[in-house]
Amino acid sequence: MNIVVKLQKCGVFLARIMPLKVSDSIARFIGGLCCFFLKKKRGYILRNLYYIVPDKSAHNYLCRKTFEKFARCMVDFFRIGYLRKSDVINDVLAFGVEYLDQALTSKKGCILLTLHIGNWDYAGSYLAACGYPMNALVEETEPEMFRLYTKHREATGLKTYPLSRSAAALLDTIKNNRILAVLADRDLTGKGEKLKFFSGQRRFPANLGEIVVKRKIPVVFGYMVLSEGKKRYVGFVEPAQIFEDEKKFYRYMIDCFERTIRKYPDQWFVFHPEWIE
User: Fold this and answer.
1) Quick one: which of 93, 41, 92 has its CA closest to 66?
2) Those residues with Cβ within 8 angstroms of residue 216's Cβ, 6 or more apart along the chain or in another chain
3) Shortest CA distance to 128 belongs to which of 169, 84, 170?
4) Phi, psi of 35 (to 5 degrees)
5) Residues 6 or more apart whose Cβ sits within 8 Å of residue 227
6) Is 44 within the bounds of a domain?
7) What is the pLDDT of residue 259?
8) Is 19 part of any domain?
9) Domain of 96?
């Protein structure tokens, strides 16, 4: 068994038997250790902050907080597999979910445009628990890890498709009027659209704009982040958009991503060197 999978299964077991406050404290500690010891990953986060946050004096603090909050989100990912739907729903304060209902009235399905901020897995599980017909495109990992992740992601009714089956996911979405969640802030192919992002450049999924324009599929932007309030998470969904021009779609996407990341710079969990220098 892969050592990473072993550690994650251990995390699932511990998250199940320990009180959440204890798990959070341990997660913060582990996150701090990872920030210190994982120099490459720390460098990637600091590079992200270089483009996002002008105040360089805040970078080290935000970098450590990024690792700590990612660890806390992983605790909740481990918890999804055994939580009741009502528990997941009670963890979240959501705004604008009714816009998904409005988007589905077109009977063409809906693209839920999102990014690697906060807890995207918990967001999908929350919407599925609320009864929304949810599909999600997910990154393909080592088979054993993929099976573990799929089990947790689908625990509340979310239906997942690996990126290699994106055509099948889109067909199911359109044919059965479902919602397809797409994390579009990373291009995993290396052949995506090169676009200005903050003060730098990054690549984004190339075919997404063409699909939403050609099919006239409603696009809804949404995300879920850790909250400092009474609820563990707060989620936001914005009104549906229909695009007739790819450039307008990508401009909308970039504007949404930049605005959200600026608001939560320590919850943008992208631990990869993807800036184009």
Assistant:
1) 41
2) 108, 242
3) 84
4) -60, -40
5) 93, 233, 234
6) no
7) 98
8) no
9) 84-267
Q: Which amino acid belongs to residue 3?
A: I
Distance CA 126, CA 122 (A): 6
18 sits in which H/E element: none
The residue behind tokens 């445009």 is 113
Q: What separation in angstroms does the CA of 247 have from each of 62, 153, 171, 195, 253?
A: 32, 32, 24, 10, 10
**CA dihedral defined by 215, 256, 272, 168, rounded to 10 degrees?**
-20
The H or E element containing residue 93 is strand 92-95
Distance in angstroms (rounded) separating the CA atoms of residues 182 and 265 = 20
Tokens representing residue 5 in the block: 């999978």
Residues 199-211: tens digit of each pLDDT = 999 999 988 999 9
Residue showing tokens 């995993």: 188
pTM of the shown model: 0.95
Residue 14 in domain: no
What's the Cα-to-Cα distance from 133 to each of 161, 198, 203, rounded to whole Å? 14, 34, 29
How big is the chain by its Cα radius of gyration, in Å?
18
| Rounded Cα gap, residues 242 and 264, in angstroms | 27
Give pLDDT, residue 81: 87
Helix (H, G, I), strand (E, B) or coil at 135: strand
Task: Flag residues of the chain having pLDDT under 50.
Answer: none
N-to-C CA span, the chain? 38
* Residue 59 maps to a domain: no
Domain count across the chain: 1
CA distance 132 to 180: 11
The values of phi and psi at residue 141, to 5°, are -120, -170
